[in-house]
Structure formats: C-alpha cells, structure tokens
Recover the amino acids of this structure.
C-alpha cells in the first residue's frame, strides 16, 4: 500500500497531501487554514535546493513539491505533521499503519502559531524531512548498529574503557577501610574530594553503558534540530545524540577529554603517593599477605593467643596475587575483614615462616596445658546458675558484633548456642568465630548473658 492509496480521494491542495487518520475532511474554517499552510509550504519548498526537494519526494514517495499532512481526530480534525522517521523505515512495514494512537505525529497545535511562528516551524520540519531523506540508504536496524558502534567510539567512552581498571580501583578503594590508615589524613580527605569530582561524569553513565554501548534494545528518533538521531535506551535511562552524517555520538554531558585524561591520571598518582608515603602500612600488608599463605592449612581460634588471633583475623581477607605494591591498582585487591589485622601483625613483621609457625605451636601447647587455675585467673564478666561468661569471651563477641551490623538478638542466641539452623547457615554464621562459644550453656540462660553486654 502506498501513501497515495490511503490519502483522501479528493486532494484539494496542490502542495499538501492530506492523510485521514480517523477523521473526515475538515470543515470550511480549517480549509482556510489549510489554504494558508498550502501557501506557506509552497513558498518554503520553493526556497529549498532542488536536491532537498527531491530527497523529500523520494522519502515520502509523493510528487516533488507535495508535502504530507495528517488529519487526525474523530469528531474534530486537527492537521498534524507526520514525524519524518515514519517515512524513513516505511519499507519495513506491511503498509501504512498511521492511527490516532501512533507516535508518528508532531502534535504541535498549528492553529495557535502566529504566521511567523508557523513559517519557521514548517521550515524546520521541511529541513527534518530533507535531512531524513539522506538516511534512506540504510534500514533502522543498520542505523541502530551504527549508532551503537559510534557510542563505543565516542572519545569519552574510549577513555573510560582505557581507564576502566583505574576507575574501578578508585571506586573500590573509596569504600575501603584501608583509606583510613593512609597518611596524612588531610591528603586522604583531599583525594576523596577529588574522586567525587573526577568520577562524576563516569558515574553519570549507566553501568552497562559505561565502557561500551549497552546491549539493550534502543529507540531512534530524528532530533528536533534535524541534524541527528536521538538515541534512547529505556533500560539504562540513557539518551544521546547520534550524527549519522559524521557517524559520531555526542553524549548528554560531554566532558573535556584533555581535562578528563589529566584528572584520572592525577587521582591515580595522588593515591600512589599516599600509599608510598605510608611504608609502615605497606610492610604490614605484605606481611599479612605472607602470613595468610603460610597458615592456609592451620586450624585456628583467635582465643588461643595473639598469633592465632592474627591468623583468624585474616582468614577471610583477600590479597592480590602478587606481592602488594604501594599503588592504586595493587591496593584495590586488598580486602581486610578487620583493620585490627594491621595491629595484630606488628610483633611478627620480621618473622620468617618457621618462626611464625613456632609461635602458633607454642600458643597451642600453652593452651592445652592451661590448668583450671589459669582459667580461674580469667576475669568473670557475668555468671548465672553456675555458668560463667569470661571477659575474654565478651571481647570476642563484641569484636565480632562490631563487624556484623545485621546480627539480631535472636540470631545471636542461636549462634552462641551453636545451632546451625538454615538461617544461620544461609548467613554463613556457622563459620564465624563466635559460633558455639556458649554451647555448654542451657539455651534459656544465654539471653541473660547477652543482655549483660548488649
Ligand atoms: Zn541500555
């Protein structure tokens, strides 16, 4: 079905082609308005280069000099301009499907425009048609693919891709407890402040479209300015401009590339300076990394002694594959479960593997020989009905609670009693150092014990 088959059979205007969309032929009042439109279109088209006039005709498949106009409405008919995109991909449709529900109209109320406004509005629309006429060589699918490829080639997206490791490392470290141990604190504060500024344009991009174009379905519309497509991904809530003639994407906020390059290099360098300026921390981290490797197969309870306490504290810690270096890219792979590990490792900084394993052995033997006498010398923190809660045990529980903000009173009872309920297991609490700590206690007494420090 071609456009000329769905228009009114009676076409009274020589420069307008009226398409009825649920409407009858307009009344005599609108006819005089249509006369005015007809005259304006004629005048405007006349001033357009012949090349453009032919482009428009090729696009709309109407004779040169004739412009399509939809007459939309049930009882009251309004003349609306049809979006040029509609004609662009007409070939892909099974015939024309303009309905009152379609988004194919520019629903500007033409009656409300002054003569000058109407003229400039129509001129812009003709320009959009002429521009769209240049795009007919490719299908919608092909233009979409080109727009997405151009998005990935946008200089800022390219920079983001190139600096992805730094950007992601900065995000990780910005939330890391390690920042709190770097010196001097005012430089750390300044660094964090810079990070907020430098990362803002990257954060403004949706995660799935930060380093390359996203893979979601996108929507293409001819922009109001008639020089580009407006590309929309609803999934990402992202919109950008694609200029098909120059094959370029312009982002909503286009940061200066030179500045962005300098800025990202600066925050990386500033972090490295901070790390290098804190050799004590580097040394401690490197030793923690070693101790974790040395004690992979050592079963441990931190109550046995400071050596075991250290080992237990880094049981779940993560370190990079290679030896830790004072750089942003190396630091991002360090994840301590408690910052106390840095303190616990201090006595052992110079220890070799053998020396450290001896420490653990000594602690173990000492614990095995612990007599009732020794345990009596421990401070009783709370006691009820012959059951005693030692101060040391409270310390362990409190240390643990300081790290687990989600622990509830009820759950803590189960954990201390050593009940591996499905809830406890789902939260992995059955592997926590406080699991079963009060196992010998009758369950009903445990709440009282908890209340003594909760
Ligand atoms: Zn998307």
């Amino acid at each position: 079905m071609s456009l000329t088959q769905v228009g009114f059979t009676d076409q009274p205007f020589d420069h307008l082609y009226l398409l009825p969309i649920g409407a009858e032929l307009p009344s005599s009042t609108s006819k005089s308005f249509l006369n005015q439109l007809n005259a304006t279109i004629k005048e405007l088209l006349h001033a357009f280069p012949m090349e453009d006039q032919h482009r428009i005709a090729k696009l709309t498949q109407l004779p040169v000099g004739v412009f399509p106009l939809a007459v939309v409405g049930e009882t009251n008919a309004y003349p609306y301009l049809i979006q040029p995109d509609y004609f662009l991909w007409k070939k892909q449709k099974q015939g024309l499907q303009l309905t009152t529900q379609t988004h194919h109209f520019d629903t500007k109320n033409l009656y409300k425009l002054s003569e000058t406004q109407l003229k400039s509005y129509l001129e812009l629309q003709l320009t959009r048609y002429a521009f769209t006429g240049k795009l007919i060589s490719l299908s919608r699918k092909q233009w979409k693919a080109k727009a997405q490829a151009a998005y990935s080639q946008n200089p800022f997206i390219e920079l983001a891709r190139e600096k992805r490791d730094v950007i992601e490392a900065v995000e990780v470290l910005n939330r890391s407890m390690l920042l709190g141990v770097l010196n001097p604190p005012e430089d750390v504060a300044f660094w964090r402040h810079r990070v907020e500024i430098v990362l803002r344009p990257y954060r403004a991009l949706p995660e799935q479209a930060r380093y390359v174009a996203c893979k979601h379905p996108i929507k293409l519309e001819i922009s109001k300015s008639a020089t580009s497509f407006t590309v929309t991904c609803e999934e990402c809530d992202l919109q950008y401009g694609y200029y098909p003639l120059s094959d370029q994407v312009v982002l909503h906020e286009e940061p200066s590339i030179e500045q962005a390059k300098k800025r990202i290099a600066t925050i990386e360098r500033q972090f490295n300076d901070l790390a290098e300026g804190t050799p004590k921390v580097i040394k401690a981290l490197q030793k923690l990394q070693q101790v974790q490797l040395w004690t992979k197969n050592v079963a441990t309870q931190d109550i046995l002694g400071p050596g075991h306490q250290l080992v237990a504290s880094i049981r779940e810690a993560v370190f990079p594959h290679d030896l830790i270096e004072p750089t942003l890219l190396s630091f991002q792979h360090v994840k301590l479960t408690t910052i106390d590990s840095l303190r616990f490792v201090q006595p052992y900084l110079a220890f070799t593997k053998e020396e450290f394993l001896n420490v653990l052995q000594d602690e173990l033997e000492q614990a095995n020989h612990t007599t009732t006498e020794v345990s009596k010398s421990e401070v009783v923190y709370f006691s009820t009905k012959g059951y005693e809660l030692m101060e040391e045990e409270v310390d362990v529980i409190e240390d643990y609670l300081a790290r687990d903000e989600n622990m509830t009173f009820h759950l803590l009872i189960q954990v201390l009693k050593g009940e591996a309920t499905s809830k406890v297991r789902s939260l992995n609490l059955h592997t926590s150092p406080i699991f079963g700590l009060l196992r010998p206690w009758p369950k009903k007494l445990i709440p009282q014990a908890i209340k003594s420090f909760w």
